[in-house]
Amino acid sequence: MNDLVEKARAGNARAVARLISLVESGSDNELREAAKLLKAPGRARVVGLTGSPGVGKSTTTAALVKALRARGDRVGVLAVDPSSPFTGGALLGDRVRMQDHALDDGVFIRSMATRGHLGGLSWAVPQALRVLDAAGFDVVLVETVGVGQAEVDVRALADTTVVLLAPGMGDGVQAAKAGILEIADVFVVNKADRDGAQSTVRDLRNMISLGGAAWRPPVVPTVAVRDEGIGDLVKALDDHARHLSETGEGRARRLARARDEITAVALRALRDRFGDPASDLRLYRLAQDVLDGLADPYTAADNVIAEL
Amino acid sequence: MNDLVEKARAGNARAVARLISLVESGSDNELREAAKLLKAPGRARVVGLTGSPGVGKSTTTAALVKALRARGDRVGVLAVDPSSPFTGGALLGDRVRMQDHALDDGVFIRSMATRGHLGGLSWAVPQALRVLDAAGFDVVLVETVGVGQAEVDVRALADTTVVLLAPGMGDGVQAAKAGILEIADVFVVNKADRDGAQSTVRDLRNMISLGGAAWRPPVVPTVAVRDEGIGDLVKALDDHARHLSETGEGRARRLARARDEITAVALRALRDRFGDPASDLRLYRLAQDVLDGLADPYTAADNVIAEL
C-alpha cells in the first residue's frame, strides 16, 4: 500500500487507477490505510460539467482537456454515469472521444459507475478526487448527467460548476430559470453555430443580470467539436478560480465538501456495522417484530442505535 | 394525531394524504408518533411497475386500477418520479390520466418526488406504503421510471415487480438479458398491437425458459390504452401472489423490506444527530483539519462516531 500510494503521488497512472478501483470497491481496511497515507494538498481545482444528454458534455470535456494540456496543466477526468443495472456499468463513449489523450501521462481519464447503493457514487467520487489531488493533478473535470438526474450532486463536489446548454432548448431554459441560476458558476452554450444560439445566450445573460450576487456567471458560446470558444471557457474558469480565492468562497465550499465527506464516511461505517453478523441477526429479529405488528420501525431503529 | 391516524385507518382520503405529506416532509417527532399509532397489518399487496419512459406505465397503471376496482379491491397508487431540481417536483401527468378515478374513494393516487437527498425517497416511500396498508388498501401500485434510473429500488419495496416493455425495443432486450430476468416477476409487453410485438414476446419467453427458478415470469401482451390483456395481467399478479404465499417467498421479501426500513430509519436518525448544533460545530472543526491536512476523513469520521 505504501508503495502504491508513493507511486500514485509520483503521478504513476497505473497506481492512480488502482487506488481509484480500491475506492470504488471499497474494501474498508485498505481504504483507511490509503486515506491515511494519501496527503491530499487540496491543490487540484475541481470543475464540474453538467447538462442534459446531447448538449456535448463529453466533446466539451475533451476540448477543455486539450486546451489545459496546451498550457501544461495535468488534467484528470472523472466521468460519472448514472447507475445502470442493465448494462452493469458505465458506457465508455467518453473514453473513445478521449483517445487523443490515451498516450499522454499528463491526462488521467476514468469512468465511474455504481448500481446506486446508498453511499455508492456519492461516497466514491470525493475519495477519487482525493486520489487525483494527491497525485498532483492541477485540474480535475467531473462530467455528470443533468443535475438532479445523477446520484452525485456535482455542485457539492466542484469548486466551479459549469452548466452546458445547447440552442433550441430555450423553453427549457425558461422553465428552469430559478434552479439554473443557482447551480451554475459558468454557463456554456455549446453548438453555438446552430440556429437560436444567440437568443439562448441573450436569454441567459438577461436572466443573470437580474441577480445581485458577487459573482455573475459568464455565458460562453462554444462549438466544442471545432474547439471554438474553448479559450474563453478556460479564461472564465480561471476568473472564477480567482474569485473563489479572493473572496474566501473557495475555502468555504471546500469546508462544506470536507464536512459532507466526513459525514458520508461516518454513515457508511455505521451502516457497515449493521451488516456484521450480530447486528444482522438483531435486525432480522426486529424486522420480524415489525412484520408481526409488535414494533414500529422507529422503535426498532432506536433499538438498533442503542446497541451500536 | 390520534384523530388523523384514526381517520386514515377508516379510509379517509384526506387523512391518508396528510399522513403521507407528513412522511415526505419528515418532521421527526410527529412521524414517530404516527408510526407508533399506525398499525400496518401487512395486508396490502405492493406491486411495482417499472420500465423505460414511453412504454406506457401510467396507462397500464390506470387500466390496472380500473380492473382491480371492478372486482372491489381498494387501490393505492404511488407514482415515484425521479428528483428534478429544475422543476422542483413531480410532473403530474399521471394524475391527469387518472382523473377517471378522481371521485372514487376506493382509489388513492399520489405523486412522490424529492430533491435527491440521502434517505429521501428511499426513506419516504416505505413509510407511505405503511400508511396505505394501515388505511386498508388491498393493492398498492408503485410506478417508477426505469430500474436503476430511479432513486428507489422498486424490487426492494414490492411484493411483485412488473417490468414493462414495448415492441421495437428488441435490441435493448437482447442487451439487457442478464439483468432483466432477475428483476421481473411479471413481464408486460405493452402496445402489443404494434409491429414486432410478437417477436418481443417470443424473445422474452425464450429467455425465461432458460432459467430454472421456482417461478417463471409470465409474459403478458397488453394494449393498455384499450384495456386489452389487463385481465391476463391481473391473473398473473394473482398467480404470483399465490406463489409468494405458498412458498414463503413473500414473507422472506417482506422481512428484507422491514429490515431495510429499520436500517434507513436508523441511518436517518444518526444523520440528523450530525446536524444538531454541537455536532455541527465539531464537524466544522474536523472539516478544517481535513482541509489543512491534519486529519484524513476516516480518522475524522471515527471521531464523529465516537462522540455520538
TrEMBL record, chains A, B:
Name it. Methylmalonyl Co-A mutase-associated GTPase MeaB
Transmembrane intervals? none
List, alphabetically, the SUPFAM superfamilies matched. Answer: P-loop containing nucleoside triphosphate hydrolases
Alphabetized, the UniProt keywords read: Chaperone, GTP-binding, Hydrolase, Nucleotide-binding
Which gene is this protein's source? meaB
Q: Is GTP-binding a UniProt keyword of this protein?
A: yes
Name a GO molecular-function annotation.
Answer: GTPase activity
Q: Name one Pfam family in it.
A: MeaB
